[in-house]
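Hi P.,

Sorry for the delay on this. The queue was packed all week, but I finally got your sequence through. Input first:
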Amino acid sequence: MTAETPALLKDILGLRALETIADAGSGVSPRFDREAFLGAASDGLDALSIRERVRHIADALHPALPGDHAARLDVLRAMAPRLTHGFQAIAIIEYVARHGLADFDASMDALADLTRFGSAEFAIRPFLVADSARALATMTRWTGSDDDHVRRLASEGARPRLPWAARVPALKADPTLAAPILEALKADPSAYVRKSVANHLNDIAKDRPDWLLARLNDWPQGDARTAWIVRHALRTLIKKGDPGALALIGVGHGAAVSVRDFVIVPATVRLGDRIAISAEILSDSPDDQRLVVDYRVHYARAGGKTAPKVFKLKTFALAGRDTATLAIGQTIRDFSTRRHHPGRHEVELIVNGRTLATAAFDLLPG
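Then the structure:
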């Protein structure tokens, strides 16, 4: 690999990481079988993705760790501070997920200890699958922890739509099961925890929007911490222009405004080019108005179809009879989650949930 070649994500758990984990194990326990671990962990490693490597390393620890499960958990706890990267910690935490269900409570306690070194949000999912009520009861108790990593784990681990994580049938059937956890953390002092709570609530918004709006309507937004959670929890519904979500952040559905000069330049681009989007918003009212301004791009797809995606532009207060000029830039480039196709891309300007103007740009092939 040259200096110019970027490292692959999976190489974070390469041979050097195995040596670090092995050093940690032998450094805390003379009975840790270093050679057994390195032999099993390195076997077939090159062909594995990052997620596969996490599981592979966890299984390689099984014949290397000494004693019964309780003793092995003690060794893992002692190893964690000696590791040099969060993914190394995630790999040893995965051991608990794959080999700890038979000792449910001790393993859950270990996850709470280990999450400080590499988040245990994925490792806790098998426990939720095996016994959701028992796991959620423990996680609810964690909301009283002094450690913000543990409080975050209570929320993040129970997210109904946690990205890259195994789905939990009970949460799929009822995504509100973790409501007591969210209630306990609705004014958490840690931004790290509040972000997780907001993301958890946003997951629920996709399946139970009415429940979410009713619950958040009862939350006192006089506390700035709670108000922040509410705003971020409602982002999916706000992008859809949901009147109830807009009302919860003090915004009416629709606004007494006009749009002038909604423009996209250049009007014709190629992949990699940057467009500039601008508009003037004119107040038609003598009163101040709070505005949420978004724009929706209808991405061209094969066969003449389109795929809409909403982007935030600005949330602000517009004084009576005043005018605001808004502008934003966007580079048209491919992502792993979005591939561009040549064709016409319609763009809508959305103010308080209603489309007030349209424009377009054309993406050329090549």
